[in-house]
Each structure stands twice: as structure tokens, then as C-alpha cells.
Amino acid sequence: MKASGNPTQPGARHSIDQSDRRKEIAAHVMEAGEVSVEDLAKFCDVSIMTIYRDVAVLEKAGVVHRSRGKVVASASGLHEATARYRLSQGAQSKEEMARAVAPLIAPGSSVLLDDSTSSVWVLRELKNMAPLSVVTNSLLVASELQGNSRHSLLLLGGEYQAWAEATMGPLTIRNLEGIHADVCLISASGVRDNLVFHPYGDVAAVKEKMMQVAEKTILLLDHTKFRRRALHAFGKLTEIDLVVVDSMTPAEEIERLRDMDVEVLVGK
Predict the structure, then answer these.
(1) What is the CATH number of the domain that holds 197?
(2) Statement to judge: residues 141 and 233 lie in one domain
(3) Torsion (CA) 250, 251, 257, 261 in degrees, nearest 10
(4) Whole-angstrom Cα distance, residue 219 to residue 217?
(5) Sign of the torsion angle spanned by Cα atoms 137, 139, 144, 145
(6) For residue range 51-70, what is the model confidence (pLDDT) as tens digits?
(7) How many other C-beta atoms can be found within 10 angstroms of the C-beta atom of residue 27?
(8) What is the total count of domains within the chain?
């Protein structure tokens, strides 16, 4: 992320918006895995103190953490960023995928939505659609439907996880056993070979059960997920009815999916 033109003196700073700079820092660290504070300062062309302030904000959101002078990605491995933070990230990608998915949801369908923030973007595309029966464990999804009497809402019970703003655990699984949905919309934190992953076992278990109780599963997978790894597998790509990706997904990744006979829809 270099400034346009030449700075007039060493350490001259970007006029880039603070929020945008933090997004760039998060993306850079997630891709690299870990980056030194000094390298981040050079990358952003700002002072080390500015980097420390930015990293402190990202740490609070659960996106990165500091370890021995390095800034380490949390959301790329065993941890996931908070839902509220993720909701504002990758807006273009999520909007593209939501636009691609919305026409596939038949009026009157029962739709099962997981705790992913991509689900919220899909709901925004469906806000003027004929009534749907929405089932979810996500309070973000529930909040999105607040004041919209067009769609009915069933909120799954379970243990509330504040970072996800969603319910998880055995009670959520038992609730799902009594559900039969027309379509399930889920996302993953990473993909490897034929498997889809999430950092947390309880989240992965809910996603797996959602796939089992739906007639059709649609996976929303933006381009960043092809570079990320996580711990718990919750399904196979070849078991998923449709994978929706954004326009920034590399052509080789799309081809690889299609070579496995996975149906792929590219948003735009």
C-alpha cells in the first residue's frame, strides 16, 4: 500500500482513511501469517506508533495479536474475528455473492442461515422478496430482520457466543434436528483439497448439522478463503450443491473446483 507520488520526507504518511489503513493491515497480516511492526510501518508508510495504535484496535477485534515483536494473524488459524468486525469487511465480495444467490431463493422457501456475515448481505438482497421462513442461530441475521414483517424468523437456541453474536453447542444441534429447510446458506473460513473448515469445533458442528437438514446447501466462499487454513472440517466440497465465489477468485481456483465436479457460480 504505497502512497501515490513521492513523499516529501522519510516517514511521510498516507492521506488514506484510518479505517481503510487498518483493513489493509489486517489483509496483509492474514496473507503473510505474521509481519514485524517495523515492516508494517514501511508497508503503510506511517510511524511505528501509528502501527501500534492500529494493531491495538485489530487485537481488540480479534483479528491479530502481537507476539515477540511480530503481528500475527488470528483469523487465519485457530481464531475467528468478531462478527461485528467481519460484517464490514470485504463488502464488495459479499455484495457480489449476495446478488448472485438472491435469484436462486424461491419465494416462500424455508432458508437456513448460519452465523456468517455473508448471510446478512444475502438478506439485504432478499428484503423485498415474497415471504420467506428464515431459520438461524445468528443474532446479526435476526437484527437484520427486525422491523421486517415480510419474513418469518425462527431463532435457534443454544449457548450464546459473544464473539460470533450467535448460539452454538448441543442445544443448537438438537434444535436443528427438528428442522427441515429448503436451502441452507453457509460459509467457511478456509478450504483445503476437498474439505471446508472453520477454526472452532462448535461452529463447525452447527454448520455440518445445517447441511444435513437442508434439501440444498449453498456455500458462499470469497477469494480470501482459498489462502486460509483452519482446524475443523465440517464437510466436503463435493457434498455441496453450489459454491458461490466473488469476481476476485483466481481462475485456477474456480477451475480446480469444477474439475472436482463442483458447481460454481461467480458473482459480479
Answers:
(1) 3.40.50.1360
(2) yes
(3) 160
(4) 6
(5) positive
(6) 999 999 888 766 788 887 78
(7) 16
(8) 2
